[in-house]
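Write out the 3D structure for:
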Amino acid sequence: MCGIAGWISFQLDLERELAALSAMTDTMACRGPDASGTWLSAHAALGHRRLSVIDLAGGVQPMVAETPDGPVVLTYSGEAYNFTELRDELRRRGHEFRTSSDTEVVLRGYLEWGQGVADRLNGMYALGIWDSRVEKLILLRDRLGIKPLYYAPTTGGLVFGSEAKALLAHPEVEPVVDADGFRELFGFVKEPGRAVWAGMHEVKPGTMVTFDRSGLREHVYWRLEVAEHHDDTETTVRRVREMLEDSVARQLVADVPQCVLLSGGLDSSALTALAGRRLAADGERARTFTVDFEQTDAFRPDDLRGSPDAPFAREVVQHVGTLHHDIKLDYQELANPEVRRATVTARDLPFGFGEADNSLYLLFKAIREHSTVALSGESSDEIFGGYPWFHLPAVQQVPMFPWVTASGLGPRNHPTKLIDPDLLLRTLDVPGYWAQRWSDSVAALPVVAGEDAHERRMREFCYVHLTSLLGLLLDRKDRMSMAVGLEVRVPFCDHRLVEYVFNTPWAMKTFDGREKSLLRAAVKDVLPRSVVERVKALYPHTQQLAYVGRLQQQVGELLSADHEAVTLFDGAALAKAVAAQPEAVDRDEREAFERVLDLAVWLDLYRPTIKLS
């Protein structure tokens, strides 16, 4: 996995702009710790930071293909999991290869099929191609948006990069966040294409952006389509298993040590079992990692986490026979200001997932000492309907993002609790933002003939999870992993599996009366019964009250210093929560502490201009 950057200008001579390009590229050293490269011409400058995963000696980037009409240059982040088949086809078409990397396959694929190469790739990728033959830039992002890609206009041109920080390093890109950006931050609903930073854009998932002297154009090469599902339940379960096995097998291709992130839940356990079987066929053992916390007290269940992960993970380890490591974190590591600084820097934004970001960063950092590639279960809940709110009748009746409805979100019960309610209601109108985003989202979903109201609502719920929530989680996974140079692959995000399950009727997705019926049935033969029957638990967090006390101390210091971050919050309410006993701090107040601390770090690091009016 890598970091890419570039600058196109039809007014300047970019051969003179190595310093600017290097500044952009160097911001992503963590994404590509193994090598860096630049390529400059009169109108195009491309940069690359490399994390070597396939063909360690080859695959150097930017990669150049010389043609009689001029060079075609690629800077590429990601993996094309079907590169072997594509390479074979290209060889039959007369192409010769100098390396065994998937990078060269993508470049040669463009030379053969032009922009049609997008339709042929299976994987996670973000790439920029400068075609000097026609003086055109092509930006391409994978179908589900697994890998990030940003761009922003400049005078007579455009800059792009894997992360916002790469663009912000360019002299023409200012760190400005306006009201629309803050709505995105506060709304917990990802709008495809919005980058939060004013004037900056994301390449949308499944989209190609082209830029030349005539301007910028978007082409959607993939979107979720509605199709009639003809398979019965037994056939559907078998097809899910086949697709998942194929996806796991493809994503186990690497020339570096790899592992599986194992929580003991259904999703990660399924990947562990299938990866274990696949590797065993080659005489290898799967390596697994589980995060746990040093708890001074016994685990206390709540409505989001009914059981600890570790016992279930151990059962899977014994059942599959993996080489296992438990990564134990304590509250002092989680509360370390330097860890928070690292996670906010990785995100480029405040208001992420607080402690969950910190623990994921520390987990990935520990894993990186042993492995370079990890498989993760992201998107299973979105695909198969795993979240509890999918199954609450009261939530199903409300035309709104279900995670918003289930949380009872409103101006005074917002996940960013203690934010100034006047800011949420009057300045930003977050409820109005939610309503508009819901309307815009479901309007893109075609009406299916003969579909009753309940089936339509559940199709809407599945759709918005895949298009408005999954992006937040994939971005979090990407930022925390790439901050330590770890490539995390997500087999459930294979677009073939996503398309197939999306179009299965809701009654089939819940045929056994539970969540994720299809996945449970598809992998029950390779897992311990206890794991197959386990009720979903959200990502774990520390239950040590000492952690809450550290948060209170740090927020109290911001209050005493009258830090700019606290001006967006209800100062009196925040001070009251800081003064309470740690055991009296509720979940929302703890969340608010995380938010204000993240905001303070972000303001100090980025010095953004905030325009809320």
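The two ends are 39 Å apart (CA to CA).
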